[in-house]
Amino acid sequence: MNSDTVFDYEVIVVGAGISGLGAAYTMQKAGLKVCVLEKENRVGGRMSTDRVNGFVIDRGATILGRDFGYMRKLSAELNVKQFENPFRFVFGLKGRDKMRFIRPRRPDDLFQKGLLTFSSLRAIVRFFAGMLWLGRKLRHGQSVRTAAYDDQSIEEFLTRYGGHELLEKVLEPGLNGPMGGHFRQNSRLIVWQTFWNVLFHRVWAYRSGMDTLPEAMAKKLEVKLNCAVATIEHGHPCRITLQSGEVLTSKAVVVALPGNIAARVCRNLPAGVQELLAETTYGKMSIAHVMLGKRPAQDAPGMGFYPLAGEHCEIEAEHLRGPEFCPPGKAMLSLYFWDHAQETVSAMSDAQVNAKAREVIARHFPDCAEAIEGIHLVRWEEGIARFPPGRLKKMAALRQQMLHWDLPLQFCGDYLDGIATESALALGVGAGEVWVKRLRG
Ligand SMILES: Cc1cc2nc3c(=O)[nH]c(=O)nc-3n(C[C@H](O)[C@H](O)[C@H](O)COP(=O)(O)OP(=O)(O)OC[C@H]3O[C@@H](n4cnc5c(N)ncnc54)[C@H](O)[C@@H]3O)c2cc1C
């Protein structure tokens, strides 16, 4: 590289989700000249919040695990006060006649409440034993240490131990929504990872909305909003071309975009990498946040996901997740719809999804049908990253490859490690550290 070359920035980060912000913040703290480019008019990506008529509406992520070390450390560092909002997490599950509520740390609930027969016991023991055996290696950001277990789907694993009942009655209804409608096809490793990091430990959320942390990080950074990137060419210098035609240059780039988008915008990638990124898939999600003038009569004893019989939809009760999320006396039921064999919800118009949400409320919460004050719809093309068996192993190999290659380019984002904000943040911090080490020694 010619030492006289002038760069606009030392490192450009493309994408201001939690992963890109984590990368940029790490580098900025070490004194690098960094800029973040974001196509939307706000930061946070899938960790963002809308505020409507006094309702705080988290658009993507809603639940954080107590063991999310990167997020807790950053929150403390940025003085994001009162960030912890612990709530009781329960799964709502449909029993033979009525709804039953299960505590994730108490598998005995499943038997006491008559949801499972004792033939499932072997599968439950195997499930928890496998998870506890891997233990802290299941922490987000650590998936390279567990890649060897990325060998079978959760369905294959449970079926081997007679756990069909556990899969169909408990795990799939409880977790299909959070996993983007892809529960049984996901690797057992991803399910263990989700249990260990989120459900097994206590859970929390930001008291005033999930965008609290991304917004606090953005205040410390140079972020250019409404800047959609069209192409990224790494080289000396790296050339980032915006859709507006403007070109920015840098010594290095961190690509913090969803994997499939990264594959579209990045040029001159090494053999096989573009194909690998292009294979990234996400569960598409349509979420109807239904704002209610009163609390539903049929409420859970804590917050969690209620699967609704026959609806291909799960409900999260936002008034139970955070007392500040709704105006006093009001409530919000968030309906998570996913695509399934009989219906492609992601292809429906907004009006059709809204009508569907009203029908679901009328069927399952009839006392609230007349109390709907509005529906706030959020739709994600790149919703929840999918990890069929073997995918995480390939991503672990890519992460190792990136550590050793001499290209001025690093990728980060949840799709490289897991399905959570903490995965995205851990990978972002890791990508930032690579450039701190290489550019500052
Ligand atoms: C409905 C839903 C519920 C979820 N629930 C939880 C949960 O409870 N707990 C949890 O931990 N995780 C949850 N997740 C997952 C979590 O939100 C993600 O794992 C995490 O936010 C991903 O962060 P990221 O930075 O990798 O990607 P993103 O947040 O997607 O960031 C990518 C950024 O790149 C930007 N971008 C895209 N194209 C361009 C372009 N051409 N130029 C410039 N910028 C571009 C996007 O606008 C976006 O801001 C949920 C996700 C969804 C969708």
Element layout with pairings:
Blueprint: E1 9-14, H1 18-29, E2 34-37, E3 49-52, E4 55-58, E5 64-65, H2 69-77, E6 91-94, E7 99-102, H3 108-112, H4 121-134, H5 154-160, H6 164-175, H7 188-199, E8 203-204, H8 212-219, E9 223-224, E10 229-233, E11 238-242, E12 247-255, H9 259-265, H10 273-278, E13 282-292, E14 305-307, E15 313-317, H11 318-321, E16 331-338, H12 350-364, E17 372-385, H13 391-404, E18 409-411, H14 421-440
Parallel strand pairs: 1-2, 1-12, 2-9, 12-18
Antiparallel strand pairs: 3-4, 5-8, 6-7, 10-11, 11-12, 13-16, 13-17, 14-15, 15-16
Helix pairs in contact: 1-8, 1-14, 4-7
Flavin-adenine dinucleotide (FAD) binds near residues 46, 256, 261 and 414.
Write up this protein.
This protein is of the alpha+beta class and 441 residues long. The protein has three domains: 9-46 and 211-280 and 388-440, FAD/NAD(P)-binding domain, CATH 3.50.50; 91-201, no CATH class; 282-385, Polyamine Oxidase, Chain A, domain 2. It is 33% helix and 22% strand. It has 14 helices and 18 strands. The strands form five sheets. Strands 1, 2, 9, 10, 11, 12 and 18 form a seven-stranded mixed β-sheet that branches. A hairpin with a 2-residue loop joins strand 3 and strand 4 (55-58). Helix 1 (18-29) runs parallel beside helix 8, helix 1 (18-29) runs parallel beside helix 14 (421-440) and helix 4 packs across helix 7 (188-199). The mean pLDDT is 90. Bound molecules: flavin-adenine dinucleotide. Flavin-adenine dinucleotide is lined by residues 14-20, 37-40, 45-47, 60-64, 228-229, 256-258, 261, 265, 285, 287, 380, 382-384, 413-414, 419-422, 424.
